Amino acid sequence: MTDAVRLDDLDLSKFSAEGQQILDMMAMMASQCPLDSDALHAQASANTGLHDFGPDDYRERLDVYLAALREIDGLHDAGVVNFYGQLLQLLKNRLLLTDLLRRHPEIHDIELRSPVVIAGLPRTGTTHLHNLLAAPPTFRTMPYWESNEPFPLPNEVGAEPDPRRARMDVAVGVDNTVMPYFPLMHEITTDHVHEEIQLLANDISTMLFETLGEVPRWRDYYRAHDQTPHYEYLATQLRAMQFLRGGRRWLLKSPQQLEQVPVLDRVFGDSIIVFTHRDPVPVALSMIAMITYSARMHRSPVAQIANSWIDRLDQMLRALVRDRDTIGPERSIDIRFDDFMADELGVAERVYALAGEPVTDEVRKAIADYLAGHRRGRLGNVETSFEMFGLRESALRDRFAPYIERFLK
Q1: For residue 238, which of 229, 228, 248 has the smallest C-alpha distance?
Q2: Residue 198: pLDDT above 80?
């Protein structure tokens, strides 16, 4: 446990010499990395030797997102390269999935057995619960490297060690060098259990894009469209990943699910949903700090995004208040953060019971071993305050009152 770190460079970012060198090297490649649909498609095909991207409805969504990226004030050259690399990987993933399905149509017949889905805002215990439940071999989960590259390149199939892990090691190292305090807010390693929101990005329809950059054009477009077909694309990817690396039952997690409960129910009709709850006021401060801090990867100076994210979180929480009862008590559970922290094993046992999974001695030992190595705050903490973002506590409590009244009283 260390003293809390105060981030004094949220607006005008400061970097170590090594971090600045990385950004400068990235910036030198900007002319070769245009945020242009045709260029991205051509490069994805060149990298994979494939040309079929699957159903082309995603192209309109890609055009909207590209336009939103180009509208970011202060977008720097390293940021252009960063976004280009992310989008290039998404298009490569589409090519690889389409090719895999063509060669193995039996993937469509694979059963997705009653996935367990954790839904909650960041900082409500979702990541801790996700990793805790993933510690035993009960559930199929995806490590970070697999979420980013779920389908191997044709010339890397069966390669050991898997080159995808090596590439993720490099990416994590870059992020930790340029953003050394990010792990204090959200630890990311090559092998940690990651979210399916990364897979939704492969269909170019996800809330993830909102957290990667200030893109109001994309946010409004995304919220105006039914997400059912994109969750169906997610289901296809999960089947394909089971085909490639096995697994009997998925354990998923994403804050996006809070405002997609009816869609989740339509596509995964037998899913078990675990809703996590915590006072949204400090949660909002922490999330805003995390998103503002990470914005240094693509813009300078970093604009204040506090008010827009308060609006966005309010929309998500109001959607949950409206839709929570879509999932009945036989398939759902509400977990308060304080209750979870007071009895982590007990909460895990409650989730297992709801999912109909046995809590064996092996399960208890795996969970205990995970808890022993992942004590809360072991990496340190980042200090936040209302003053940092020009916010007032009373105003936030008024905004979030319906959610607080429903789930925390």
Answers
A1: 248
A2: yes
pLDDT in tens, 120-132: 998 899 999 999 9
Helix (H, G, I), strand (E, B) or coil at 180: coil
Cα gap 26→19, rounded to integer Å: 11
Say how far apart CA 333 and CA 273 lie, in whole Å. Answer: 7
Q: Of the candidates 264, 149, 266, which has an alpha carbon nearest to the alpha carbon of residue 199?
A: 149
Q: Are 312 and 86 in contact (CB under 8 A)?
A: no
Task: Answer for the pair 150, 243: CB distance below 8 angstroms, yes or no.
Answer: no
3-state secondary structure labels for all residues of 112-162: CCCCEEEECCCCCCHHHHHHHHHCCCCCECCEHHHHHCCCCCHHHCCCCCC
pLDDT class of 2 with cuts at 50, 70, 90:
low
Residue 186, pLDDT score: 86
Residue 91: strand, helix, or coil: helix
What would the two tokens of residue 111 be? 């059963």
Token pair, residue 395, equals: 């105003």
- pLDDT band at 223, cuts 50/70/90? very high
* Residue 371 identity: L
Spatial separation of the C-alpha atoms in residues 392 and 230, rounded to whole Å: 37
Q: How many Å apart are CA 101 and CA 2, to the nearest integer?
A: 49
Tens of pLDDT along 239-298?
999 999 999 999 999 999 999 999 999 999 999 999 999 999 999 999 999 999 999 999
Average pLDDT over residues 375-397: 89
Mean pLDDT of the chain, nearest integer: 96
Q: Strands of 116-119's sheet, edge to edge?
A: 251-253, 116-119, 272-277, 332-336
Block residue for tokens 């190595």: 373
% residues pLDDT > 70 (the chain): 99
The alpha carbon torsion through 396, 398, 404, 409 (nearest 10 deg) reads 120
How confident is the model at residue 3, as a pLDDT?
A: 76
Q: 218-221: which pairs have CB atoms within 8 A and are 24 or more residues apart?
A: 218/64, 218/65, 218/68, 219/312, 221/61, 221/64
Q: Which of 215, 221, 233 is nearest to 61 (CA)?
A: 221
Backbone CA torsion sign across 341, 344, 346, 349: positive
What DSSP state is assigned to residue 75?
B
